[in-house]
What does this fold into?
Amino acid sequence: MRVLVTGGAGYIGSHTLLELMAQGHVVCVLDNYANATPTVLNRVRALSNGQITDFVGDVRDAKKLDEVMAAFAPEAVIHFAGLKAVGESAQKPLYYYDVNITGTLTLLHAMERAGCKRIIFSSSATVYGEPQYLPYDEAHPTNPMSVYGRTKLMAEQILTDWVAAHADRTAVLLRYFNPVGAHPSADLGEDPRDIPNNLMPFIAQVAIGKRDVLEVFGDDYDTPDGTGLRDYIHVVDLARAHVAALGYAAVHNGARPFNIGTGQNYSVRDMVAAFEIASGRNIPTKQSPRRAGDVAAMQADASRANAELGWHATHGLDDMAASTWAWQSKNRNGYDTD
It folds into this structure.
Protein backbone atom coordinates (compact mmCIF):
# COMPACT_ATOMS: atom_id res chain seq x y z
CA MET A 1 0.00 0.00 0.00
CA ARG A 2 1.11 3.59 -0.62
CA VAL A 3 1.25 5.27 2.79
CA LEU A 4 1.72 8.95 3.63
CA VAL A 5 3.25 9.30 7.11
CA THR A 6 2.84 12.76 8.65
CA GLY A 7 5.49 13.44 11.28
CA GLY A 8 7.37 10.45 9.93
CA ALA A 9 10.79 11.71 11.10
CA GLY A 10 9.67 11.67 14.73
CA TYR A 11 10.38 9.05 17.39
CA ILE A 12 7.43 6.74 16.71
CA GLY A 13 7.14 7.68 13.05
CA SER A 14 10.72 6.69 12.20
CA HIS A 15 10.35 3.25 13.77
CA THR A 16 7.03 2.80 11.97
CA LEU A 17 8.64 3.63 8.62
CA LEU A 18 11.05 0.73 9.05
CA GLU A 19 8.24 -1.70 9.90
CA LEU A 20 6.13 -0.51 6.96
CA MET A 21 9.01 -0.86 4.52
CA ALA A 22 9.87 -4.30 5.86
CA GLN A 23 6.33 -5.38 4.91
CA GLY A 24 6.64 -3.98 1.39
CA HIS A 25 4.64 -0.77 1.80
CA VAL A 26 5.69 2.31 -0.17
CA VAL A 27 6.15 5.32 2.11
CA CYS A 28 6.15 9.09 1.86
CA VAL A 29 6.98 11.43 4.75
CA LEU A 30 5.70 14.92 5.45
CA ASP A 31 7.50 16.62 8.35
CA ASN A 32 8.23 20.22 9.30
CA TYR A 33 11.15 19.12 11.54
CA ALA A 34 9.90 21.16 14.48
CA ASN A 35 10.75 18.22 16.72
CA ALA A 36 12.90 16.10 14.42
CA THR A 37 15.80 16.22 11.97
CA PRO A 38 16.33 15.01 8.37
CA THR A 39 19.14 12.83 9.76
CA VAL A 40 16.44 10.44 10.95
CA LEU A 41 15.26 9.65 7.43
CA ASN A 42 18.84 9.12 6.28
CA ARG A 43 19.27 6.55 9.02
CA VAL A 44 15.98 4.85 8.11
CA ARG A 45 17.14 4.65 4.51
CA ALA A 46 20.45 3.12 5.59
CA LEU A 47 18.79 0.58 7.89
CA SER A 48 16.16 -0.44 5.33
CA ASN A 49 18.22 -0.05 2.15
CA GLY A 50 14.95 1.33 0.80
CA GLN A 51 13.42 4.41 -0.79
CA ILE A 52 11.53 7.15 1.06
CA THR A 53 9.83 10.04 -0.65
CA ASP A 54 9.86 13.04 1.66
CA PHE A 55 8.48 16.55 1.74
CA VAL A 56 9.25 19.38 4.14
CA GLY A 57 6.03 21.02 5.25
CA ASP A 58 3.49 21.67 7.96
CA VAL A 59 0.35 19.57 8.21
CA ARG A 60 -1.66 22.80 8.50
CA ASP A 61 -0.48 23.94 5.05
CA ALA A 62 -3.29 22.97 2.65
CA LYS A 63 -1.30 23.92 -0.46
CA LYS A 64 1.63 21.72 0.59
CA LEU A 65 -0.71 18.84 1.40
CA ASP A 66 -2.30 19.07 -2.04
CA GLU A 67 1.18 19.01 -3.58
CA VAL A 68 2.08 15.89 -1.59
CA MET A 69 -1.20 14.15 -2.41
CA ALA A 70 -0.84 14.89 -6.12
CA ALA A 71 2.78 13.72 -6.25
CA PHE A 72 2.44 10.59 -4.12
CA ALA A 73 -1.23 9.52 -4.42
CA PRO A 74 -1.47 7.78 -1.02
CA GLU A 75 -3.90 4.96 -0.40
CA ALA A 76 -3.73 5.56 3.36
CA VAL A 77 -2.35 8.09 5.84
CA ILE A 78 -0.70 7.46 9.20
CA HIS A 79 -1.05 10.73 11.09
CA PHE A 80 1.65 11.33 13.72
CA ALA A 81 2.25 15.04 13.19
CA GLY A 82 1.33 16.95 16.34
CA LEU A 83 2.41 18.28 19.71
CA LYS A 84 2.54 15.95 22.70
CA ALA A 85 3.82 17.56 25.92
CA VAL A 86 1.17 17.58 28.65
CA GLY A 87 2.77 20.38 30.66
CA GLU A 88 3.45 22.59 27.65
CA SER A 89 -0.13 22.14 26.46
CA ALA A 90 -1.38 23.89 29.62
CA GLN A 91 0.95 26.83 28.94
CA LYS A 92 0.24 27.07 25.20
CA PRO A 93 -3.33 25.83 24.71
CA LEU A 94 -4.05 27.76 21.51
CA TYR A 95 -0.86 26.46 19.93
CA TYR A 96 -1.84 22.89 20.80
CA TYR A 97 -5.37 23.25 19.46
CA ASP A 98 -4.04 24.87 16.30
CA VAL A 99 -1.46 22.20 15.52
CA ASN A 100 -3.37 19.14 16.71
CA ILE A 101 -6.89 20.09 15.62
CA THR A 102 -6.36 22.43 12.69
CA GLY A 103 -3.68 20.06 11.42
CA THR A 104 -6.06 17.11 11.51
CA LEU A 105 -8.85 19.07 9.80
CA THR A 106 -6.53 20.36 7.07
CA LEU A 107 -5.24 16.84 6.48
CA LEU A 108 -8.75 15.40 6.20
CA HIS A 109 -9.76 18.09 3.69
CA ALA A 110 -6.69 17.24 1.60
CA MET A 111 -7.50 13.54 1.82
CA GLU A 112 -11.04 14.29 0.62
CA ARG A 113 -9.75 16.24 -2.37
CA ALA A 114 -7.34 13.40 -3.22
CA GLY A 115 -9.85 10.60 -2.67
CA CYS A 116 -7.80 8.99 0.12
CA LYS A 117 -10.18 7.14 2.45
CA ARG A 118 -8.09 5.46 5.18
CA ILE A 119 -6.33 7.04 8.16
CA ILE A 120 -4.46 5.61 11.14
CA PHE A 121 -4.45 8.20 13.93
CA SER A 122 -1.84 8.60 16.63
CA SER A 123 -4.04 9.06 19.70
CA SER A 124 -3.29 8.64 23.39
CA ALA A 125 -4.47 6.92 26.54
CA THR A 126 -4.64 10.40 28.07
CA VAL A 127 -8.14 10.60 26.55
CA TYR A 128 -9.38 8.44 29.45
CA GLY A 129 -8.33 10.69 32.33
CA GLU A 130 -8.73 9.60 35.94
CA PRO A 131 -9.46 5.86 35.86
CA GLN A 132 -12.87 4.70 37.00
CA TYR A 133 -11.47 1.19 36.75
CA LEU A 134 -8.27 -0.48 35.57
CA PRO A 135 -7.18 -1.72 33.21
CA TYR A 136 -8.74 0.76 30.82
CA ASP A 137 -10.70 -0.84 28.00
CA GLU A 138 -11.97 1.10 25.01
CA ALA A 139 -15.41 1.43 26.64
CA HIS A 140 -13.95 3.33 29.60
CA PRO A 141 -15.42 6.87 29.80
CA THR A 142 -13.23 9.58 28.29
CA ASN A 143 -12.43 12.60 30.44
CA PRO A 144 -8.94 13.93 29.60
CA MET A 145 -7.22 15.97 32.31
CA SER A 146 -4.93 18.02 30.05
CA VAL A 147 -5.18 20.26 27.01
CA TYR A 148 -3.07 17.71 25.14
CA GLY A 149 -5.50 14.91 26.00
CA ARG A 150 -8.46 17.06 24.98
CA THR A 151 -6.88 17.74 21.58
CA LYS A 152 -6.50 14.00 21.04
CA LEU A 153 -10.09 13.26 22.03
CA MET A 154 -11.39 16.11 19.88
CA ALA A 155 -9.42 14.83 16.88
CA GLU A 156 -10.81 11.33 17.51
CA GLN A 157 -14.34 12.77 17.42
CA ILE A 158 -13.66 14.66 14.19
CA LEU A 159 -12.35 11.47 12.57
CA THR A 160 -15.31 9.45 13.88
CA ASP A 161 -17.79 11.98 12.47
CA TRP A 162 -15.95 12.10 9.14
CA VAL A 163 -16.17 8.33 8.83
CA ALA A 164 -19.83 8.27 9.91
CA ALA A 165 -20.69 10.58 7.02
CA HIS A 166 -19.04 8.31 4.42
CA ALA A 167 -19.67 4.56 4.43
CA ASP A 168 -16.42 3.81 2.58
CA ARG A 169 -14.07 5.63 5.02
CA THR A 170 -11.89 4.12 7.75
CA ALA A 171 -10.28 5.67 10.81
CA VAL A 172 -8.23 3.49 13.16
CA LEU A 173 -7.64 5.33 16.44
CA LEU A 174 -4.57 3.99 18.25
CA ARG A 175 -4.57 5.02 21.91
CA TYR A 176 -0.92 4.69 22.93
CA PHE A 177 0.14 4.17 26.48
CA ASN A 178 3.80 5.10 27.22
CA PRO A 179 6.25 4.48 24.36
CA VAL A 180 9.85 3.79 25.38
CA GLY A 181 12.91 2.00 24.02
CA ALA A 182 14.81 2.22 20.76
CA HIS A 183 15.52 0.29 17.58
CA PRO A 184 17.83 -2.74 18.10
CA SER A 185 20.43 -1.11 15.83
CA ALA A 186 20.70 1.77 18.35
CA ASP A 187 20.58 4.10 15.33
CA LEU A 188 16.98 5.23 16.00
CA GLY A 189 15.64 6.40 19.34
CA GLU A 190 13.95 9.17 21.27
CA ASP A 191 15.85 12.44 20.98
CA PRO A 192 13.92 15.12 22.88
CA ARG A 193 14.81 18.74 22.37
CA ASP A 194 15.45 20.80 25.49
CA ILE A 195 14.22 19.16 28.71
CA PRO A 196 12.69 15.71 28.11
CA ASN A 197 8.95 15.46 28.76
CA ASN A 198 9.04 11.69 29.17
CA LEU A 199 10.57 9.60 31.93
CA MET A 200 12.85 7.20 30.05
CA PRO A 201 14.89 9.73 28.01
CA PHE A 202 15.32 11.78 31.18
CA ILE A 203 16.68 8.72 33.01
CA ALA A 204 18.98 8.01 30.06
CA GLN A 205 20.35 11.55 30.06
CA VAL A 206 21.10 11.30 33.79
CA ALA A 207 22.84 7.96 33.23
CA ILE A 208 25.02 9.36 30.42
CA GLY A 209 25.93 12.41 32.51
CA LYS A 210 24.04 15.08 30.57
CA ARG A 211 21.82 15.79 33.59
CA ASP A 212 22.64 15.62 37.27
CA VAL A 213 19.49 14.17 38.76
CA LEU A 214 16.09 12.69 37.88
CA GLU A 215 13.17 14.64 39.27
CA VAL A 216 10.44 12.30 40.56
CA PHE A 217 7.07 14.05 40.58
CA GLY A 218 5.00 12.74 43.48
CA ASP A 219 5.73 10.01 46.00
CA ASP A 220 2.36 10.00 47.76
CA TYR A 221 0.17 8.28 45.16
CA ASP A 222 -1.90 5.27 46.19
CA THR A 223 0.58 2.88 44.60
CA PRO A 224 2.97 0.29 46.07
CA ASP A 225 5.94 2.70 46.27
CA GLY A 226 4.05 6.00 46.10
CA THR A 227 5.20 6.89 42.57
CA GLY A 228 3.04 6.83 39.46
CA LEU A 229 2.35 3.57 37.64
CA ARG A 230 2.40 3.52 33.84
CA ASP A 231 1.97 0.93 31.11
CA TYR A 232 5.18 1.25 29.10
CA ILE A 233 5.33 -0.15 25.57
CA HIS A 234 8.42 -0.70 23.46
CA VAL A 235 8.46 1.59 20.43
CA VAL A 236 9.10 -1.33 18.06
CA ASP A 237 5.93 -3.05 19.31
CA LEU A 238 4.08 0.23 18.89
CA ALA A 239 5.41 0.63 15.35
CA ARG A 240 4.22 -2.87 14.47
CA ALA A 241 0.76 -1.97 15.76
CA HIS A 242 0.54 0.64 12.99
CA VAL A 243 1.33 -1.96 10.35
CA ALA A 244 -1.36 -4.21 11.83
CA ALA A 245 -3.79 -1.26 11.85
CA LEU A 246 -3.05 -0.63 8.18
CA GLY A 247 -3.96 -4.23 7.39
CA TYR A 248 -7.17 -3.82 9.38
CA ALA A 249 -8.04 -0.60 7.55
CA ALA A 250 -7.62 -2.32 4.20
CA VAL A 251 -10.60 -4.60 4.89
CA HIS A 252 -12.76 -2.68 7.39
CA ASN A 253 -14.73 0.55 7.22
CA GLY A 254 -15.80 2.75 10.10
CA ALA A 255 -13.98 4.28 13.09
CA ARG A 256 -12.53 2.00 15.75
CA PRO A 257 -10.35 2.82 18.80
CA PHE A 258 -7.68 0.40 20.03
CA ASN A 259 -5.58 0.47 23.18
CA ILE A 260 -1.90 -0.13 22.41
CA GLY A 261 -0.15 -1.19 25.61
CA THR A 262 1.22 -4.26 27.33
CA GLY A 263 -1.35 -4.70 30.11
CA GLN A 264 1.36 -4.33 32.77
CA ASN A 265 2.42 -1.24 34.62
CA TYR A 266 5.59 -0.16 36.36
CA SER A 267 6.36 2.61 38.82
CA VAL A 268 8.92 5.37 38.36
CA ARG A 269 11.19 3.56 40.80
CA ASP A 270 10.77 0.30 38.85
CA MET A 271 11.94 2.10 35.72
CA VAL A 272 14.92 3.63 37.49
CA ALA A 273 15.94 0.25 38.89
CA ALA A 274 15.68 -1.43 35.47
CA PHE A 275 17.77 1.30 33.88
CA GLU A 276 20.42 1.09 36.58
CA ILE A 277 20.78 -2.62 35.76
CA ALA A 278 20.87 -2.00 31.99
CA SER A 279 23.42 0.81 32.23
CA GLY A 280 25.43 -0.33 35.25
CA ARG A 281 25.16 3.23 36.56
CA ASN A 282 23.52 4.89 39.52
CA ILE A 283 20.60 7.21 38.78
CA PRO A 284 20.35 9.99 41.41
CA THR A 285 16.80 11.14 42.08
CA LYS A 286 15.19 14.21 43.64
CA GLN A 287 11.66 14.23 45.00
CA SER A 288 9.27 16.93 43.77
CA PRO A 289 5.54 17.59 44.14
CA ARG A 290 2.98 16.00 41.85
CA ARG A 291 2.38 17.57 38.45
CA ALA A 292 -1.07 18.82 37.47
CA GLY A 293 -2.83 16.39 35.13
CA ASP A 294 -0.95 13.28 36.25
CA VAL A 295 -2.96 10.25 37.41
CA ALA A 296 -1.77 7.67 39.92
CA ALA A 297 -1.94 4.66 37.61
CA MET A 298 -2.57 3.74 33.98
CA GLN A 299 -2.85 0.27 32.53
CA ALA A 300 -4.14 -0.99 29.20
CA ASP A 301 -6.57 -3.71 28.37
CA ALA A 302 -5.19 -4.45 24.90
CA SER A 303 -7.39 -7.48 24.23
CA ARG A 304 -9.26 -5.74 21.39
CA ALA A 305 -6.01 -5.02 19.55
CA ASN A 306 -4.87 -8.59 20.22
CA ALA A 307 -8.07 -10.07 18.81
CA GLU A 308 -8.97 -7.69 15.97
CA LEU A 309 -5.59 -6.44 14.78
CA GLY A 310 -3.75 -9.68 15.46
CA TRP A 311 -1.17 -7.62 17.34
CA HIS A 312 0.63 -8.44 20.60
CA ALA A 313 3.40 -6.65 22.50
CA THR A 314 6.49 -8.86 22.72
CA HIS A 315 9.14 -6.70 24.43
CA GLY A 316 9.49 -6.57 28.21
CA LEU A 317 10.93 -4.02 30.62
CA ASP A 318 14.49 -5.34 30.29
CA ASP A 319 14.37 -4.80 26.50
CA MET A 320 12.97 -1.31 26.98
CA ALA A 321 15.76 -0.27 29.32
CA ALA A 322 18.59 -2.02 27.46
CA SER A 323 17.65 -0.62 24.03
CA THR A 324 17.28 2.90 25.44
CA TRP A 325 20.73 2.68 27.02
CA ALA A 326 22.23 1.30 23.78
CA TRP A 327 20.75 4.25 21.85
CA GLN A 328 21.88 6.84 24.40
CA SER A 329 25.37 5.32 24.68
CA LYS A 330 25.86 5.33 20.92
CA ASN A 331 24.29 8.77 20.45
CA ARG A 332 25.27 10.88 23.44
CA ASN A 333 23.88 14.01 21.80
CA GLY A 334 21.09 12.27 19.95
CA TYR A 335 20.94 12.87 16.22
CA ASP A 336 23.35 15.79 16.63
CA THR A 337 26.05 13.07 16.66
CA ASP A 338 25.96 13.16 12.83
Summary: The CA atoms of residues 86 and 258 lie 21 Å apart.
